[in-house]
Write a structure and sequence with these properties.
The complex is a heterodimer. By secondary structure, chain A is an alpha/beta fold. Chain A has helices at residues 57-64, 87-92, 110-114, 129-142, 158-171, 188-203, 215-221, 244-252, 306-313, 336-341, 351-355, 362-367, 371-374, 382-395, 412-424, 442-457, 469-475, 498-506; strands at residues 19-28, 31-41, 46-50, 72-77, 80-82, 95-98, 176-180, 207-211, 224-229, 232-238, 270-278, 286-291, 295-300, 321-326, 329-331, 344-347, 375-376, 379-380, 430-434, 461-465, 478-483, 486-492. Chain A contains 18 helices and 22 strands.
Chain lengths: 512, 326
């Protein structure tokens, strides 16, 4: 697309990539996470990697760092083909990653963290502490980090932990530095310091892969961009040749290849009102209403506070202010049990951690919140439990040999159905689905979507938190976009387009 | 049925039968009904404590204070009986049960409200309870001649050919089989231990569920405290010293997962019986009691290895065609 040899980068350094990936494909059971993607990283330049959640950014980072091995494709360093069977191989090739949540050791000192795995050795192969301290100090000085090498890491804030991670990258003389949303948890001042550091790494000739959702910072520090969408590379080039609108178009501009079963249904009376909901650190000023038979979508970037808000509505965390009304009267919700009693249920995002209980058979998973229904004078009636479980698992078209089967032996899609069946069995009025189809195969997705539409048609009020734009657009009657803990926009009808969602979620064109 | 044959319980039954056959080949008298009932009676305190421990371990906790609880309750009962021989046995039983329950509740409250790791809480209360025994007894023993005949007679009293102690263990097993299989609380033990996060979203109170497990464990320990002191007709500071480890061992051998959420009461019963048989058989065969420790220890290691293997095969099944057969 571009004659990079002629159009030199802004910093005017090399135009041959230090690292080039081509035709990289990585599949997981039922999911094609990466499909023949290519990515080039140039010395002394920052390449921004952008894409929606689930576009494959994390997967490519894992491929680059040797944590995952691609099924197909070619990795070249300085034009030489290579492979990374383990993470150690990638480290030795000079590739290092600074993760969103830094992967460091809290109980060790700064110096130990910097030199973990390659500490300077003295006599008898023992760690040479004075040398390690001195070298750590040298590296920290180079990046102007005012840290004591002997300080335990746990006493540092996130920004300083990033500095330690960067120092570690320098200690192995990394040629490729991957930064995965490094500014997500930093204050404005810390972000400025990080930008300076990025500039310094650039001037030392290192190639930087910068993953970010924030357009302002991409335009500020990146020289090149690569856009991923649905596991494919859909565009790459120089930042100077692109504008925000073009990047957004590349990120979201796709055909909706999935027919959504949104039925025409009547939206009824208001069931749930959330008024002035606030939390000291997660969200503020949340007001919305939900009606019978409505599917209300919640869109936003990861970390926009959507799940945190839903958890507060469900009584898992305490809000600092605001109230919930059900059918117009105040509801006191202090625990999930209260929420369930009020007809609100929450299907969490992480099925493994928060949904299914492995080790319990399917029917016991389904009836767990409904045991008062299926028991008599304090004793459980297994026949009733089977009946209830059968009723709801059949409605969801669950495929299992027997309801006695352990949930852990089911596929992800079927586990999701068990979790949803569990909640429907409580006969809720409001159901909150958090990323209901994340990580499940296409077939199960369609079943979940069809069922969601059916629920709404039956008069249930549905809140769907989703980061997948087609799903949000295809299923929702109305969408609330959250950004940084606030409601950025409420969109309905003809205004519901991929572009408006992304603009509001990323804050493009909004006041900072 | 085939599923049962592959289970831990079936394996333990096979091991126990093989063990008994092996012993019987040299010492046929060991498997006479009268001797087996003696072995069962001797194992009853272990069974009682192991049932309580099972519930605690199911909820991802551990109760190391059970033996100290047993000893303190036993000492209090013995001292009461020595000073006031007129107190009827039902009152003694009520005191034992309530004391045990209160000590269990203390553990449970610390775990629930202060979120202190259970191993730390019960290690602490274990030491405290033992310390209190010393304080109240001044290190003195309560010997059999100070106890009333009714006091020491109760656990030995025979009903339908079995001593009371055995009956209490049998009743406890039956009761907790029912609690586990047929009550919301029993189900909650598994849910809370199997996936505490998911349990929260299901509206279960994880801390409260763990609290009740500790209360039950304490109650059984208290009850056993009286029975133990009365049966052996002696009470002193170090009674049942180290017994908590044997209790945990019975659970682990019985297939209760230390990670919580998996295991059965039947497994625990079999685990306790296995240890009981080994302990009673060794002197008969003429093997030094020191070997008993080594054998119990080996059984624990083998059982844990089995548990680890079982949980590995329980992992995610990726192949679609393997799903139906799992």
């Amino acid at each position: 697309m571009l004659q990079s040899a002629e159009i030199g980068p802004a910093s005017g350094v090399s135009t041959t990539p230090v690292m080039a990936l081509s035709g990289i494909t990585k599949t997981f059971p039922g999911v094609r996470a990466l499909s023949e993607v290519s990515l080039e990283l140039y010395p002394g330049q920052v390449t921004a990697l952008v894409g929606e959640n689930g576009a494959g950014k994390s997967t490519i980072v894992k491929v680059l760092t040797g944590i995952l091995q691609p099924n197909e494709g070619r990795i070249e360093i300085d034009g030489q083909e290579t492979t990374f069977p383990t993470a150690l191989h990638a480290t030795q090739a000079g590739i290092t990653a600074i993760h969103q949540e830094t992967v460091l050791f809290d109980e060790l000192t700064v110096a130990e963290n910097i030199f973990i795995g390659h500490a300077p050795r003295g006599r008898f192969g023992l760690i040479d502490w004075p040398a390690m301290r001195r070298k750590a100090k040298d590296i920290l000085d180079r990046i102007d980090a005012p840290l004591d090498p002997m300080m335990p890491l746990k006493e540092l804030g996130i920004a300083n932990k990033h500095l330690v991670a960067i120092a570690r990258a320098l200690s192995v003389d990394a040629r490729v530095v991957i930064m995965d949303e490094p500014t997500a948890a930093l204050s404005q001042k810390e972000i400025e310091e990080l930008y300076e550091l990025v500039e310094r790494l650039k001037s030392e000739g290192r190639a930087i892969l910068f993953i970010s959702h924030k357009f302002d910072e991409i335009f500020r520090i990146a020289d090149r961009y690569t856009v991923f969408r649905d596991g494919q590379q859909v565009g790459a080039g120089l930042m100077s040749d692109v504008d925000e609108a073009e990047l957004v178009r590349l990120m979201v501009g796709r055909d909706v290849d999935h027919i959504f079963p949104k039925s025409e249904h009547r939206v009824g009376d208001t069931v749930l009102q959330v008024e002035g909901f606030a939390h000291p650190t997660e969200f503020d000023g949340i007001n919305f209403e939900l009606r019978k038979g409505e599917i209300l979508g919640f869109y936003g970037l990861v970390g926009a506070g959507r799940s945190e808000l839903m958890q507060a509505i469900f009584g898992i965390t305490r809000p600092s202010g605001g109230k919930i009304r059900i059918d117009g009267s105040d509801a006191a919700i202090h625990s999930p049990a209260d929420a369930i009693a009020n007809g609100i249920v929450y299907v969490p995002e992480d099925r493994g951690k928060q949904g299914a209980i492995m080790g319990l058979p399917i029917f016991q998973n389904v009836t767990l919140p409904s045991l008062s229904q299926t028991s008599n004078r304090g004793f459980l009636r297994l026949a009733e439990e089977f009946k209830l479980a059968r009723e709801y698992t059949e409605r969801l078209d669950l495929r299992a040999a027997s309801l006695d089967q352990d949930v852990g032996n089911l596929s992800g899609g079927n586990q999701q159905k068990v979790v949803i069946a569990k909640w429907l069995a409580t006969k809720p009025r409001v159901i909150i689905l958090d990323e209901p189809t994340k990580g499940i195969d296409i077939g199960s997705k369609a079943a979940v979507h069809a069922f969601m539409a059916e629920l709404a048609a039956q008069g249930l009020a549905v809140i769907m938190v989703s980061s997948e734009i087609p799903e949000i657009l295809g299923m929702s009657d109305r969408v609330i976009v959250m950004r940084e803990g606030l409601i950025a926009a409420e969109i309905a009808g003809g205004d519901l387009t991929p572009e408006t969602l992304v603009r509001h979620a990323a804050g493009i064109g909004a006041k900072p | 049925m085939t599923q049962f044959l592959k289970s831990r319980e079936a394996l333990l039954i096979a091991v126990i039968v093989a063990l008994l056959a092996l012993i019987a080949s040299r010492f046929p008298a060991f498997i006479e009904p009268s001797n087996l009932s003696k072995v069962f009676n001797d194992t009853s305190p272990l069974i009682l404590l192991a049932i309580g421990q099972t519930l605690v371990i199911l909820t991802r906790c551990i109760d190391l204070s059970v033996a100290a609880n047993l000893a303190l309750t036993g000492m209090v009962c013995a001292m009461l009986n020595a000073s006031m021989p007129g107190i009827p046995i039902p009152v003694i039983l009520a005191i034992a049960v309530s004391m045990g329950a209160v000590m269990g509740a203390i553990n449970g409250l610390l775990v629930w409200t202060l979120s202190i790791p259970p191993i730390v809480v019960t290690l602490g209360t274990m030491t405290i309870y033992r310390g209190i025994i010393f304080v109240i007894s001044g290190g003195e023993w309560v010997n059999s001649h100070e106890m009333s005949a009714a006091f020491t007679g109760f656990p030995r009293a025979e009903v339908l050919g079995l001593p009371m102690l055995s009956w209490i263990a049998i009743i406890a097993v039956a009761m907790f089989l029912l609690v586990i299989a047929r009550t919301p609380l029993g189900r909650a033990f598994y849910a809370v231990g199997g996936n505490p996060n998911a349990a929260v979203y299901t509206g279960l109170n994880v801390g409260r569920t763990q609290f009740w497990a500790f209360v039950i464990s304490g109650t059984l320990a208290g009850l056993t405290g009286y029975l133990w002191v009365a049966r052996y007709a002696v009470a002193y500071v170090d009674i049942a010293g180290g017994f908590e480890l044997e209790v945990v061992a019975a659970c682990v051998i019985g297939g209760i997962s230390i990670a919580g959420g998996a295991g059965t009461i039947l497994g625990t019963l079999l685990g306790a019986l296995f240890l009981g048989i080994v302990k009673n058989a060794l002197p008969v065969i003429g093997i030094s009691p020191f070997w008993q420790l080594a054998i119990s220890g080996s059984a624990i290691v083998i059982a844990v290895a089995f548990n680890a293997r079982a949980s590995r095969t329980k992992g995610r099944i990726i192949l679609k065609r393997a799903e139906g057969t799992a």
